[in-house]
């Protein structure tokens, strides 16, 4: 069973619609376009509703980042018992989603904006991206690999180190290159499959005979 450690905040469908509009405004117009009045008009809601749902500007930014991070899926809590095949499926889903989100216009805009504001006094966007974006994704993915270890499918001494190996295999230097203007991958699924195969080669559990468990990538 996979724990629900590090669950993402849950928004209503209407709140998700508003957050999508907020992200669109940010991508199209930058930081200055993201005002309470502008968002209320774009999302066809009242400013009072925005304050009620998200609080101040920092609260809105945190919600936007959490909403974006929620698009990177991991296995949900349930009664499913992990197998070698289902673990591979969950890891590849995570890897594909991570690549899709990182290469999207929204994430690139958020990261570029945070980098541009990093030298400003009082700028909180970078910290919000780490706490409500990267760390939330990390926690849920680490819960998955911890579940894989408990199921006897993965072996590692340090879950954090194992997870960052997985992350590095998936992302490599792709995100930095995309932030500098290079296009994303043409085949995220293939990159995800290769990364997970490499990760399982490093951390796949072994049977008593000493042979690695088979994590077939065949479909």
Structural account:
With 219 residues, this protein is mainly alpha-helical. The longest helix has 26 residues. The N terminus and C terminus are likely disordered.
The level of helicity is: 55-70%
Alpha carbon gyration radius: 19 Å
What is the makeup of the main sheet? none
Number of strands: 0
- Which stretches of 5+ consecutive residues score pLDDT under 50? 1-6, 207-219
Distance between the termini: 24 Å
What's the total helix number? 10
Order of helices and strands: HHHHHHHHHH
Short descriptors:
single chain; 219 residues; 64% helix; disordered N terminus
Quick structural summary:
InterPro entries: Homeodomain-like_sf, HTH-type_TetR-like_transc_reg, HTH_TetR, Tet_transcr_reg_TetR-rel_C_sf, TetR_C_Proteobacteria. This is TetR/AcrR family transcriptional regulator. With 219 residues, the chain is mainly alpha-helical.
Which helices and strands, and how do they pair?
Elements (H helix, E strand, L loop, with lengths): L12 H17 L6 H8 L3 H8 L2 H13 L14 H20 L1 H13 L7 H26 L8 H13 L2 H6 L8 H16 L16
Helix pairs in contact: 1-2, 1-4, 1-6, 4-7, 5-10, 7-8, 8-10
Pfam families: TetR_C_7, TetR_N
Keywords: DNA-binding
Protein name: TetR/AcrR family transcriptional regulator
